[in-house]
User: What shape does this take?
Amino acid sequence: MKTVATRFAPSPTGPLHIGGVRTALFNWLYSKNKGGKFYLRIEDTDKERSKEEFKNQIINSLKWIGINYDDGEYIQSKKIVDHINIANNLLKKGLAYKCYCSTDEIEEQKKRAKQKKIPYIYDRKWRNKSESDAPKEIDPVIRFKSKIEGKSILKDLVQGNVEIENNTIEDFVILRADGSPTYNLSASVDDHLMGMTHIIRGDDHKINTFKQIQIYEAMNWEVPSFAHIPLIHTIEGKKLSKRDNASTLDDYSKIGIIPNALRNYLLRLGWSYKDKEIFDLDESIKYFNLEGIGKSPSKLDISRIYSMNEHYIKNIDEIDLFDLLITYCNTFKEKIPDLSKKKIKNSLHFLKNKAKTLEDIYKNSKFLINDKIQIEKEDKKLLDETAIKIIKLFSNEINKLSDFTRESLEPIIENLIKNNNTNFKGVGQPLRICLTGSKFGPGIYDILCSLGKDEVSKRLSQIR
Assistant: This one.
């Protein structure tokens, strides 16, 4: 039996889209589940729009989320000669032809189709014409001779049998007038040369699949199996595009989503296995199958991503969480001093409470990172005479302590509440503002114990 081989084939014309990541994930998991190979093909034949920075972003994005491809990247532009040779081969075999229609002629055909409100299909004008009739001033394109009669059936591994009338597939261009190959030719040739057994991609490629199968059959190549995944929609039900917020992996890494959490979310986005929600990497590979992919579009739900991320933050090993946090801070926020790293590491058990993202943990940690506390204007208003009095009384009491622990601090705070006719918030809030710069943040005992007596005394002494 042939070894399973899948591929992910993005164009480096922009940052990697979240839908592309899911496609890559499904291909990768399927090949790993079957003990096969997974390849990355960079389709960079659009020279004007293809950029090295986008190619690097694609590679780094896959690495970030944990998708590892076999061998090096397959660069499509390096295989152009192979694509052109196949086009010329089809031409010699009479399975393709030169089309001398001018741009104006094609535009007129499209205009008429639009007026009639029917899909545009090239009228096959040059399909059976002699080249002796060809105009000398026009460089021809090469078109594939598509089937005209009968029906074709695609045995789709996700969608089931998909049937199409052959006359609805036009004689599509395989070589442009400048001699460059088109997508359908290049993709077919590359998939054949790479030995692809399964093509798993978005269901917006279905019409391309019918075209590519005809190229396979014309060349007497073994046709791979095809699986078309429904697209990802926004929560409003519209097709997700690169213009939408949170459409690329960069959007998620910047707000502190953990790679494993996002991978778990994307796995479950349009795929299910029984009623299981959380999958570690080994489980993802073990249980993934094409039968579990639904036939309807999935909606990208950012609130569900936050929820999944919160689960991972709560349950991940704290050493791993600390490493992720420091990498996140160094990349997107600020370089954390070694002394602060130690404080954060020792305090992570409470800094991660209620945190949905690494950014939340960073915000909770800022009082440990910054020695100088800047109090927000609105929070300063809360430091009235009563609050200042409580702070001074608290400072006096902790100076008497030899043991600075929660057990020694609790009686002090309880007495302040009782003697000043207030509640826990009346004591805790002013202290939190003075110690962290904000009324929001970790619990007051956690703040006090993580800073230590000397630092607490120093910060409170600056309040007048």
